[in-house]
Amino acid sequence: MNYYNEMNLHILAVSENESFARAVVGAFCLPLKPSLEDIADIKTAVSEAVTNSVVHAYPNKKGYIDIYVAIKDCTIAIEIKDYGVGIVDVQKAKQPFFTSLKNSERSGMGFTVMEGFMDQVTVDSIPGQGTTVRMQKTITNLKTAFGG
Amino acid sequence: MTIKHRIENHVLYIILSGELDECTSNFVRQKLDQILEDKNYQQVIFDFSELEFMDSTGIGVLIGRYKKLKQHKIPIFIYNPSSQVEKIFKMSGLYEIMPRIA
What we know:
The structure holds two protein chains of two kinds.
Chain A: E1 4-12, H1 16-28, H2 36-57, E2 64-72, E3 75-82, H3 90-94, H4 110-117, E4 120-126, E5 130-138
Antiparallel strand pairs in A: 1-2, 2-3, 3-5, 4-5
Chain B: E1 2-8, E2 11-20, H1 22-36, E3 43-47, E4 51-54, H2 57-70, E5 76-79, H3 83-92
Parallel strand pairs in B: 2-3, 2-4, 3-5
Antiparallel strand pairs in B: 1-2
């Protein structure tokens, strides 16, 4: 069981790319033969992070999102990065039900869902420079992985 | 996203299929509000059997509809979500305001 792979995806921060991004990352993880549940968890976490960048990072201007995924053995590391306005108070943003966009029917559950669906989530943000979300998940169904 | 609905014995069934995310949420909001407009029903059941994907955007959409129906004292119930959607519902405490019926 010696698997290693990497990918980069450079996309415009528009909502049409949310489904594209989660489908690509989900497909990239398939060689690990993850369970349907693991794939759903990963796709949901990616969707949350990409949606945050689409909604918040670039108000009224065009911007990009870079997604980098590295798989080493059974561990998937995902980095989702934008170059937008950033988050002033990351701890506050991570609180369940917190949203900076009041009256927009947003749940404020994005980071909570990422943390619930992945093993590890870290958020680094510099106001005016952008936000990077790093997430990690280890796929545990070793029996079926790598043709075993 | 496609949204179908029918009324049976004063129950409004709303069947969601496809992927509910930020991209499709505006369409879903508009369509739901249009369906919910005629108040010739006493309760609403959201059928999630055919929903292939939902992220937390869906929670915002559902809570928005809940607030509107609450004024008319019309309860909402959730039917048959996938295990992925179920996890998001549990995480957000949605079942406290919209119980799951099956």
